[in-house]
Specification:
The chain is an alpha+beta fold. It is 18% helix and 23% strand. The chain has 9 helices and 25 strands.
Length: 502
Protein backbone atom coordinates (compact mmCIF):
# COMPACT_ATOMS: atom_id res chain seq x y z
CA UNK A 1 0.00 0.00 0.00
CA UNK A 2 1.45 3.35 -1.02
CA UNK A 3 0.21 5.37 1.94
CA UNK A 4 1.74 8.75 1.41
CA UNK A 5 3.23 10.91 4.11
CA UNK A 6 5.09 12.97 1.52
CA UNK A 7 2.96 16.02 0.88
CA UNK A 8 4.30 19.33 -0.31
CA UNK A 9 4.33 22.54 1.70
CA UNK A 10 6.26 25.43 0.35
CA UNK A 11 6.01 28.99 1.52
CA UNK A 12 6.59 30.60 4.90
CA UNK A 13 3.81 32.78 6.24
CA UNK A 14 6.29 35.52 7.01
CA UNK A 15 6.98 36.82 3.51
CA UNK A 16 10.20 38.78 3.77
CA UNK A 17 9.72 40.26 0.33
CA UNK A 18 12.80 41.70 -1.27
CA UNK A 19 12.52 45.28 -2.57
CA UNK A 20 12.39 45.62 -6.34
CA UNK A 21 15.15 47.37 -8.18
CA UNK A 22 13.69 50.11 -10.35
CA UNK A 23 15.15 48.66 -13.55
CA UNK A 24 13.61 45.27 -12.84
CA UNK A 25 10.10 46.26 -11.80
CA UNK A 26 8.55 45.73 -15.23
CA UNK A 27 9.73 42.13 -15.61
CA UNK A 28 9.44 41.20 -11.96
CA UNK A 29 6.07 42.62 -10.99
CA UNK A 30 4.00 42.88 -14.17
CA UNK A 31 0.34 43.70 -14.31
CA UNK A 32 -2.04 40.76 -14.28
CA UNK A 33 -2.62 39.60 -17.88
CA UNK A 34 -5.97 40.17 -19.54
CA UNK A 35 -8.76 37.71 -18.73
CA UNK A 36 -7.99 34.41 -20.41
CA UNK A 37 -10.37 33.00 -22.97
CA UNK A 38 -12.14 29.93 -21.64
CA UNK A 39 -11.83 30.97 -18.00
CA UNK A 40 -14.88 32.97 -16.98
CA UNK A 41 -14.61 35.39 -14.02
CA UNK A 42 -15.89 33.98 -10.75
CA UNK A 43 -19.04 34.94 -8.88
CA UNK A 44 -19.86 34.47 -5.20
CA UNK A 45 -21.69 31.17 -5.77
CA UNK A 46 -18.45 29.67 -7.13
CA UNK A 47 -17.01 29.75 -3.59
CA UNK A 48 -18.16 26.89 -1.36
CA UNK A 49 -17.80 26.68 2.41
CA UNK A 50 -17.05 23.83 4.82
CA UNK A 51 -17.67 24.03 8.56
CA UNK A 52 -14.86 22.63 10.69
CA UNK A 53 -17.44 21.14 13.05
CA UNK A 54 -14.92 18.95 14.90
CA UNK A 55 -12.41 21.78 15.31
CA UNK A 56 -9.81 19.85 13.32
CA UNK A 57 -7.74 22.89 12.36
CA UNK A 58 -7.29 24.02 15.97
CA UNK A 59 -6.53 20.43 16.98
CA UNK A 60 -3.88 20.20 14.28
CA UNK A 61 -1.94 23.13 15.70
CA UNK A 62 -2.67 22.01 19.24
CA UNK A 63 -2.55 23.86 22.57
CA UNK A 64 1.06 24.94 21.99
CA UNK A 65 2.95 25.76 18.78
CA UNK A 66 4.14 22.59 17.07
CA UNK A 67 5.69 21.65 13.76
CA UNK A 68 3.40 22.14 10.77
CA UNK A 69 2.26 18.61 9.88
CA UNK A 70 1.71 18.48 6.13
CA UNK A 71 0.25 14.98 6.24
CA UNK A 72 -2.37 16.02 8.81
CA UNK A 73 -3.34 18.99 6.65
CA UNK A 74 -3.93 16.62 3.75
CA UNK A 75 -6.09 14.37 5.96
CA UNK A 76 -8.25 17.35 6.96
CA UNK A 77 -8.68 18.46 3.36
CA UNK A 78 -9.56 14.88 2.38
CA UNK A 79 -12.34 14.86 4.98
CA UNK A 80 -13.62 18.19 3.69
CA UNK A 81 -13.37 17.00 0.08
CA UNK A 82 -15.46 13.93 0.89
CA UNK A 83 -18.20 16.22 2.17
CA UNK A 84 -17.93 18.53 -0.85
CA UNK A 85 -17.73 15.98 -3.69
CA UNK A 86 -21.36 14.80 -3.41
CA UNK A 87 -22.43 18.41 -3.94
CA UNK A 88 -20.29 19.16 -6.99
CA UNK A 89 -19.65 15.76 -8.55
CA UNK A 90 -16.36 14.09 -9.39
CA UNK A 91 -15.69 16.54 -12.20
CA UNK A 92 -12.69 18.50 -10.93
CA UNK A 93 -8.93 18.09 -11.16
CA UNK A 94 -8.28 19.92 -7.89
CA UNK A 95 -10.08 21.15 -4.81
CA UNK A 96 -8.51 24.16 -3.11
CA UNK A 97 -9.11 25.29 0.47
CA UNK A 98 -8.63 28.55 2.36
CA UNK A 99 -9.51 29.38 5.95
CA UNK A 100 -11.29 32.52 7.13
CA UNK A 101 -9.71 32.46 10.58
CA UNK A 102 -6.33 32.29 12.27
CA UNK A 103 -5.88 29.32 14.63
CA UNK A 104 -5.44 30.40 18.24
CA UNK A 105 -1.98 28.82 18.48
CA UNK A 106 -0.69 29.99 15.12
CA UNK A 107 3.02 30.69 15.18
CA UNK A 108 5.17 33.03 13.19
CA UNK A 109 6.84 30.61 10.79
CA UNK A 110 3.78 28.54 9.91
CA UNK A 111 3.55 27.54 6.28
CA UNK A 112 1.23 29.65 4.18
CA UNK A 113 0.46 27.09 1.51
CA UNK A 114 0.49 23.37 0.88
CA UNK A 115 -0.12 20.89 -1.94
CA UNK A 116 -1.18 17.31 -1.27
CA UNK A 117 -0.61 15.00 -4.27
CA UNK A 118 -3.46 12.58 -4.98
CA UNK A 119 -3.12 11.20 -8.50
CA UNK A 120 -0.55 11.22 -11.30
CA UNK A 121 -0.48 9.19 -14.51
CA UNK A 122 2.44 11.04 -16.11
CA UNK A 123 5.90 9.49 -16.32
CA UNK A 124 9.20 11.24 -16.92
CA UNK A 125 8.75 13.67 -14.01
CA UNK A 126 10.75 11.77 -11.39
CA UNK A 127 9.25 10.24 -8.28
CA UNK A 128 8.97 10.64 -4.50
CA UNK A 129 8.52 8.37 -1.45
CA UNK A 130 5.14 6.63 -1.57
CA UNK A 131 4.73 6.89 -5.34
CA UNK A 132 5.53 4.07 -7.73
CA UNK A 133 9.11 3.93 -9.10
CA UNK A 134 7.99 5.64 -12.31
CA UNK A 135 6.31 8.43 -10.33
CA UNK A 136 2.72 7.40 -11.00
CA UNK A 137 0.37 7.17 -8.04
CA UNK A 138 -3.27 7.19 -7.02
CA UNK A 139 -3.89 7.77 -3.31
CA UNK A 140 -7.70 7.91 -3.43
CA UNK A 141 -8.09 4.57 -1.67
CA UNK A 142 -5.15 5.14 0.68
CA UNK A 143 -6.78 8.28 2.03
CA UNK A 144 -10.36 7.06 1.76
CA UNK A 145 -11.00 9.88 -0.71
CA UNK A 146 -14.19 9.64 -2.73
CA UNK A 147 -14.22 9.71 -6.52
CA UNK A 148 -11.38 8.97 -8.89
CA UNK A 149 -10.54 12.17 -10.78
CA UNK A 150 -8.87 14.52 -8.28
CA UNK A 151 -5.18 15.07 -8.93
CA UNK A 152 -4.41 17.11 -5.84
CA UNK A 153 -5.65 19.14 -2.87
CA UNK A 154 -4.45 22.70 -2.25
CA UNK A 155 -4.49 24.44 1.12
CA UNK A 156 -3.92 28.10 1.98
CA UNK A 157 -4.13 29.94 5.28
CA UNK A 158 -6.34 32.77 6.51
CA UNK A 159 -7.83 34.67 3.57
CA UNK A 160 -8.08 37.73 5.84
CA UNK A 161 -4.30 37.96 6.23
CA UNK A 162 -2.75 41.03 4.64
CA UNK A 163 -0.19 38.79 2.92
CA UNK A 164 -2.91 37.69 0.45
CA UNK A 165 -3.75 40.43 -2.03
CA UNK A 166 -5.08 40.78 -5.57
CA UNK A 167 -5.17 44.54 -6.04
CA UNK A 168 -2.73 46.86 -7.87
CA UNK A 169 -2.93 48.97 -4.70
CA UNK A 170 -0.72 46.33 -3.03
CA UNK A 171 1.73 45.51 -5.83
CA UNK A 172 4.32 43.57 -3.84
CA UNK A 173 1.87 41.41 -1.86
CA UNK A 174 -0.28 40.87 -4.95
CA UNK A 175 2.75 39.71 -6.94
CA UNK A 176 3.77 37.37 -4.12
CA UNK A 177 0.22 35.97 -3.91
CA UNK A 178 0.22 35.27 -7.65
CA UNK A 179 3.52 33.43 -7.38
CA UNK A 180 2.52 31.41 -4.31
CA UNK A 181 -0.79 30.21 -5.73
CA UNK A 182 0.80 29.06 -8.99
CA UNK A 183 3.69 27.62 -6.98
CA UNK A 184 1.32 25.15 -5.31
CA UNK A 185 -0.28 24.23 -8.63
CA UNK A 186 3.17 23.61 -10.11
CA UNK A 187 3.74 20.92 -7.46
CA UNK A 188 1.27 18.80 -9.39
CA UNK A 189 4.13 18.23 -11.85
CA UNK A 190 7.36 19.09 -10.09
CA UNK A 191 9.94 19.31 -9.12
CA UNK A 192 10.61 15.62 -8.46
CA UNK A 193 13.38 15.20 -11.03
CA UNK A 194 16.35 12.92 -10.35
CA UNK A 195 19.93 14.16 -10.60
CA UNK A 196 21.40 14.37 -14.07
CA UNK A 197 23.57 11.40 -15.04
CA UNK A 198 26.69 13.42 -14.23
CA UNK A 199 25.40 14.13 -10.70
CA UNK A 200 24.21 17.71 -11.11
CA UNK A 201 21.14 18.28 -8.95
CA UNK A 202 17.92 19.44 -10.56
CA UNK A 203 15.93 19.13 -7.33
CA UNK A 204 16.85 21.28 -4.36
CA UNK A 205 17.87 18.32 -2.26
CA UNK A 206 19.80 15.50 -3.88
CA UNK A 207 17.63 12.45 -4.44
CA UNK A 208 20.12 10.26 -2.56
CA UNK A 209 20.36 12.75 0.31
CA UNK A 210 23.95 13.72 -0.50
CA UNK A 211 25.35 17.17 0.21
CA UNK A 212 26.00 19.90 -2.29
CA UNK A 213 22.46 20.83 -3.25
CA UNK A 214 20.93 24.23 -2.63
CA UNK A 215 17.30 24.63 -1.74
CA UNK A 216 14.68 22.12 -0.65
CA UNK A 217 13.24 18.95 -2.11
CA UNK A 218 10.44 19.28 -4.68
CA UNK A 219 11.79 22.68 -5.79
CA UNK A 220 14.42 23.61 -8.34
CA UNK A 221 17.98 23.49 -7.08
CA UNK A 222 19.37 27.00 -6.82
CA UNK A 223 22.44 25.99 -8.84
CA UNK A 224 20.11 25.94 -11.87
CA UNK A 225 19.82 29.07 -14.00
CA UNK A 226 16.40 29.05 -15.67
CA UNK A 227 15.37 32.74 -15.71
CA UNK A 228 13.08 32.63 -12.70
CA UNK A 229 9.81 30.92 -11.81
CA UNK A 230 7.26 30.43 -9.07
CA UNK A 231 8.84 27.05 -8.28
CA UNK A 232 12.19 28.58 -7.44
CA UNK A 233 14.30 28.17 -10.56
CA UNK A 234 16.82 30.99 -10.35
CA UNK A 235 17.73 33.82 -12.64
CA UNK A 236 21.50 34.02 -12.55
CA UNK A 237 22.79 37.04 -14.47
CA UNK A 238 26.22 37.18 -16.09
CA UNK A 239 29.38 35.41 -14.98
CA UNK A 240 32.53 36.10 -12.95
CA UNK A 241 30.59 37.20 -11.03
CA UNK A 242 27.12 35.79 -11.61
CA UNK A 243 24.45 37.73 -9.72
CA UNK A 244 20.95 36.73 -8.69
CA UNK A 245 18.00 38.63 -10.11
CA UNK A 246 15.58 40.26 -7.69
CA UNK A 247 13.15 37.74 -6.22
CA UNK A 248 10.26 37.53 -3.79
CA UNK A 249 10.65 36.00 -0.37
CA UNK A 250 13.14 33.64 1.21
CA UNK A 251 12.27 30.96 -1.35
CA UNK A 252 13.74 33.01 -4.22
CA UNK A 253 10.56 32.89 -6.27
CA UNK A 254 10.23 35.30 -9.17
CA UNK A 255 8.55 36.02 -12.47
CA UNK A 256 10.18 34.60 -15.58
CA UNK A 257 12.18 36.78 -17.96
CA UNK A 258 11.97 34.57 -21.06
CA UNK A 259 8.17 34.64 -20.82
CA UNK A 260 8.18 38.19 -19.51
CA UNK A 261 5.79 38.38 -16.58
CA UNK A 262 5.05 34.64 -16.62
CA UNK A 263 5.01 32.66 -13.39
CA UNK A 264 6.46 29.51 -15.00
CA UNK A 265 9.79 28.92 -16.71
CA UNK A 266 10.20 26.83 -19.85
CA UNK A 267 11.55 24.07 -17.60
CA UNK A 268 8.31 24.17 -15.60
CA UNK A 269 6.25 24.17 -18.78
CA UNK A 270 7.99 20.99 -19.94
CA UNK A 271 7.06 19.20 -16.72
CA UNK A 272 3.49 20.48 -17.08
CA UNK A 273 3.20 19.09 -20.61
CA UNK A 274 2.89 22.50 -22.25
CA UNK A 275 6.05 22.49 -24.38
CA UNK A 276 8.31 19.92 -26.02
CA UNK A 277 12.00 19.45 -25.15
CA UNK A 278 12.93 21.22 -28.39
CA UNK A 279 10.76 24.21 -27.45
CA UNK A 280 12.52 24.43 -24.07
CA UNK A 281 15.95 24.45 -25.70
CA UNK A 282 14.83 27.08 -28.21
CA UNK A 283 12.82 29.24 -25.81
CA UNK A 284 15.25 29.59 -22.92
CA UNK A 285 17.89 32.27 -23.19
CA UNK A 286 20.17 30.27 -20.87
CA UNK A 287 20.26 26.79 -19.33
CA UNK A 288 23.20 27.00 -16.96
CA UNK A 289 24.47 25.45 -13.75
CA UNK A 290 26.61 27.11 -11.06
CA UNK A 291 29.00 24.17 -10.62
CA UNK A 292 31.04 25.08 -7.56
CA UNK A 293 28.63 27.13 -5.46
CA UNK A 294 28.35 25.82 -1.90
CA UNK A 295 25.34 27.82 -0.71
CA UNK A 296 24.13 29.36 -4.01
CA UNK A 297 24.67 32.87 -2.77
CA UNK A 298 25.69 35.79 -4.96
CA UNK A 299 28.07 37.07 -6.18
CA UNK A 300 29.34 33.79 -7.63
CA UNK A 301 32.79 33.64 -9.27
CA UNK A 302 33.10 29.91 -9.96
CA UNK A 303 32.73 27.62 -12.94
CA UNK A 304 29.47 27.58 -14.91
CA UNK A 305 28.35 24.66 -17.07
CA UNK A 306 25.43 24.21 -19.44
CA UNK A 307 22.79 21.53 -19.87
CA UNK A 308 20.00 20.76 -22.31
CA UNK A 309 16.70 18.94 -22.22
CA UNK A 310 18.52 15.87 -23.54
CA UNK A 311 20.30 15.70 -20.17
CA UNK A 312 16.99 15.80 -18.25
CA UNK A 313 15.36 13.21 -20.52
CA UNK A 314 18.41 10.94 -20.22
CA UNK A 315 18.05 10.83 -16.42
CA UNK A 316 14.26 11.03 -15.95
CA UNK A 317 13.05 9.46 -19.19
CA UNK A 318 10.77 11.18 -21.69
CA UNK A 319 7.57 12.77 -20.49
CA UNK A 320 4.60 10.54 -21.28
CA UNK A 321 2.18 11.77 -22.48
CA UNK A 322 4.26 14.25 -24.45
CA UNK A 323 3.21 17.85 -24.82
CA UNK A 324 1.05 17.27 -27.88
CA UNK A 325 -1.15 14.78 -26.01
CA UNK A 326 -0.97 16.19 -22.47
CA UNK A 327 -3.98 17.58 -20.60
CA UNK A 328 -4.37 21.30 -21.22
CA UNK A 329 -7.62 22.33 -19.52
CA UNK A 330 -8.04 22.02 -15.76
CA UNK A 331 -10.80 22.69 -13.23
CA UNK A 332 -10.62 23.56 -9.54
CA UNK A 333 -13.41 23.87 -6.98
CA UNK A 334 -12.71 26.28 -4.11
CA UNK A 335 -13.82 26.02 -0.49
CA UNK A 336 -13.42 28.30 2.53
CA UNK A 337 -13.03 26.37 5.80
CA UNK A 338 -14.72 28.13 8.71
CA UNK A 339 -15.43 27.65 12.40
CA UNK A 340 -18.94 26.67 13.54
CA UNK A 341 -21.31 29.60 13.22
CA UNK A 342 -18.87 31.79 11.28
CA UNK A 343 -19.32 31.11 7.54
CA UNK A 344 -17.40 33.26 5.06
CA UNK A 345 -18.94 36.66 4.47
CA UNK A 346 -19.25 38.53 1.19
CA UNK A 347 -15.98 40.43 1.68
CA UNK A 348 -13.99 37.25 2.30
CA UNK A 349 -15.46 35.60 -0.77
CA UNK A 350 -14.79 38.69 -2.87
CA UNK A 351 -11.16 38.81 -1.78
CA UNK A 352 -10.69 35.18 -2.77
CA UNK A 353 -12.47 35.79 -6.07
CA UNK A 354 -9.95 38.52 -6.88
CA UNK A 355 -7.04 36.17 -6.20
CA UNK A 356 -8.56 33.38 -8.28
CA UNK A 357 -9.44 35.64 -11.21
CA UNK A 358 -5.79 36.70 -11.25
CA UNK A 359 -4.68 33.07 -11.18
CA UNK A 360 -6.85 32.09 -14.14
CA UNK A 361 -5.31 34.89 -16.17
CA UNK A 362 -1.75 34.17 -15.00
CA UNK A 363 -2.15 30.48 -15.81
CA UNK A 364 -3.13 30.92 -19.45
CA UNK A 365 -0.61 33.71 -20.05
CA UNK A 366 2.22 31.78 -18.38
CA UNK A 367 1.43 28.61 -20.37
CA UNK A 368 1.79 30.52 -23.65
CA UNK A 369 -1.97 30.50 -24.18
CA UNK A 370 -2.01 26.71 -24.42
CA UNK A 371 -3.87 25.90 -21.21
CA UNK A 372 -6.76 27.08 -19.05
CA UNK A 373 -7.48 26.78 -15.34
CA UNK A 374 -11.16 27.27 -14.54
CA UNK A 375 -12.33 28.07 -11.00
CA UNK A 376 -16.02 28.34 -11.80
CA UNK A 377 -18.38 25.60 -10.65
CA UNK A 378 -20.38 23.62 -13.15
CA UNK A 379 -23.65 25.47 -13.66
CA UNK A 380 -25.76 22.33 -14.17
CA UNK A 381 -27.26 21.68 -10.72
CA UNK A 382 -28.13 18.09 -11.64
CA UNK A 383 -25.59 15.29 -11.12
CA UNK A 384 -25.90 11.67 -12.21
CA UNK A 385 -25.57 9.31 -9.23
CA UNK A 386 -25.68 6.02 -11.15
CA UNK A 387 -27.29 2.79 -9.84
CA UNK A 388 -29.48 2.00 -12.86
CA UNK A 389 -30.80 -1.59 -13.09
CA UNK A 390 -31.51 -2.86 -16.61
CA UNK A 391 -34.86 -4.00 -17.92
CA UNK A 392 -36.32 -4.90 -21.30
CA UNK A 393 -34.81 -1.85 -23.04
CA UNK A 394 -31.55 -1.79 -21.15
CA UNK A 395 -30.92 0.73 -18.39
CA UNK A 396 -33.68 3.34 -17.93
CA UNK A 397 -32.24 6.85 -18.15
CA UNK A 398 -33.21 9.77 -15.90
CA UNK A 399 -32.05 13.32 -16.69
CA UNK A 400 -32.71 16.50 -14.73
CA UNK A 401 -33.29 19.80 -16.53
CA UNK A 402 -33.54 23.36 -15.24
CA UNK A 403 -31.48 25.43 -12.82
CA UNK A 404 -33.62 24.80 -9.68
CA UNK A 405 -33.97 28.51 -8.99
CA UNK A 406 -37.19 29.33 -7.14
CA UNK A 407 -40.07 30.11 -9.51
CA UNK A 408 -38.40 28.63 -12.62
CA UNK A 409 -39.49 25.69 -14.78
CA UNK A 410 -37.64 22.41 -14.30
CA UNK A 411 -38.17 18.76 -15.20
CA UNK A 412 -36.99 15.22 -14.51
CA UNK A 413 -37.28 13.18 -17.70
CA UNK A 414 -37.30 9.38 -17.85
CA UNK A 415 -36.52 7.48 -21.06
CA UNK A 416 -35.54 3.97 -22.19
CA UNK A 417 -37.96 2.38 -19.72
CA UNK A 418 -40.43 -0.45 -20.34
CA UNK A 419 -43.39 0.87 -22.39
CA UNK A 420 -46.79 1.42 -20.78
CA UNK A 421 -45.54 0.16 -17.43
CA UNK A 422 -46.32 1.16 -13.87
CA UNK A 423 -43.53 3.30 -12.43
CA UNK A 424 -42.84 4.62 -8.96
CA UNK A 425 -41.13 7.98 -8.43
CA UNK A 426 -38.84 7.96 -5.38
CA UNK A 427 -37.99 11.41 -4.03
CA UNK A 428 -35.80 12.31 -1.03
CA UNK A 429 -33.81 15.19 0.42
CA UNK A 430 -30.80 12.98 1.11
CA UNK A 431 -29.00 10.08 -0.49
CA UNK A 432 -27.91 6.65 0.67
CA UNK A 433 -27.36 3.22 -0.90
CA UNK A 434 -30.32 0.97 -0.02
CA UNK A 435 -30.73 -2.54 -1.52
CA UNK A 436 -33.95 -2.71 -3.56
CA UNK A 437 -35.27 -5.40 -5.93
CA UNK A 438 -31.80 -6.63 -6.85
CA UNK A 439 -30.43 -3.14 -7.33
CA UNK A 440 -29.70 -0.01 -5.33
CA UNK A 441 -32.07 2.80 -4.43
CA UNK A 442 -30.27 6.11 -3.77
CA UNK A 443 -33.03 8.53 -2.58
CA UNK A 444 -33.37 7.73 1.12
CA UNK A 445 -35.21 8.27 3.37
CA UNK A 446 -37.84 8.83 0.69
CA UNK A 447 -41.32 10.34 0.62
CA UNK A 448 -44.25 8.11 -0.35
CA UNK A 449 -43.66 7.04 -3.97
CA UNK A 450 -45.85 8.52 -6.69
CA UNK A 451 -47.19 5.79 -9.01
CA UNK A 452 -47.80 6.66 -12.67
CA UNK A 453 -47.38 4.90 -16.03
CA UNK A 454 -44.73 5.28 -18.71
CA UNK A 455 -45.72 6.17 -22.27
CA UNK A 456 -45.92 3.67 -25.11
CA UNK A 457 -42.35 4.64 -25.97
CA UNK A 458 -41.08 4.09 -22.43
CA UNK A 459 -40.78 7.78 -21.61
CA UNK A 460 -42.10 9.81 -18.70
CA UNK A 461 -41.43 13.57 -18.47
CA UNK A 462 -42.27 15.24 -15.16
CA UNK A 463 -42.22 19.05 -15.41
CA UNK A 464 -42.43 21.16 -12.26
CA UNK A 465 -41.98 24.72 -11.05
CA UNK A 466 -39.39 25.09 -8.32
CA UNK A 467 -40.97 26.50 -5.13
CA UNK A 468 -39.73 29.80 -3.75
CA UNK A 469 -37.76 30.01 -0.53
CA UNK A 470 -35.87 26.71 -0.75
CA UNK A 471 -32.53 27.12 1.11
CA UNK A 472 -29.32 27.23 -0.91
CA UNK A 473 -27.62 23.84 -1.02
CA UNK A 474 -30.79 21.78 -0.58
CA UNK A 475 -30.37 18.32 -2.13
CA UNK A 476 -33.12 16.73 -4.23
CA UNK A 477 -32.64 13.02 -4.96
CA UNK A 478 -34.80 11.35 -7.62
CA UNK A 479 -35.00 7.80 -9.01
CA UNK A 480 -37.64 5.72 -10.82
CA UNK A 481 -38.60 2.08 -10.24
CA UNK A 482 -40.37 0.59 -13.27
CA UNK A 483 -42.34 -2.65 -13.45
CA UNK A 484 -40.41 -4.77 -15.95
CA UNK A 485 -40.58 -8.56 -16.36
CA UNK A 486 -37.14 -8.57 -17.96
CA UNK A 487 -35.46 -7.10 -14.87
CA UNK A 488 -33.75 -9.27 -12.25
CA UNK A 489 -36.69 -9.21 -9.82
CA UNK A 490 -39.35 -7.78 -12.07
CA UNK A 491 -38.42 -4.17 -11.38
CA UNK A 492 -35.98 -2.02 -13.35
CA UNK A 493 -34.39 1.09 -11.85
CA UNK A 494 -33.36 4.29 -13.54
CA UNK A 495 -30.13 5.95 -12.60
CA UNK A 496 -30.51 8.25 -9.60
CA UNK A 497 -29.95 11.99 -10.01
CA UNK A 498 -29.21 14.62 -7.40
CA UNK A 499 -30.23 18.23 -7.77
CA UNK A 500 -28.56 20.98 -5.73
CA UNK A 501 -30.33 24.30 -5.28
CA UNK A 502 -28.16 27.33 -6.09
Amino acid sequence: MHFMRYAVACVATSLALAPLAAAQRQSRSPAVPAQALGSAPLVATDILSWEDTDNLIETLWGPVPTQFDEHEVTLITVQAANDILPLIGDNYDFIGFWMNFKPATWWGNAKAAHYGPIKNNVTGLGTFPGADPDGTHDFHSDYGLAGSKLQGLLFFTNINSTQWQSSPSFPTSTAATRLIVNHEYEHRFGNYLPDLLDGRHMQGQAVDGSSGACGTKTHWDSHVDGQGSCLGVQEWIGSNPALLGTTYGSGRFGFNTDIVGGTFSYLDLYLMGMVSPAEVDAGMSEMRYMDDSVDCSAPYFGAISHFTMADIVASAGPRVPESGAAQKDFKTAWVIIHKPGDPPDAAEKQKLIGILNNQQQDWTFSTLGRSTMSHTLDRNPWADQGCALAGVSGEPTLIGAGDLVGGTSNAVNLSNAAPSAAAGLFLALAGAAVPFKGGTLKPFPFFDPVIVATSSSGQLPVPFVMPLGIPVGTEIWVQWAIQDAAAVKGVALSNAIRGLTP
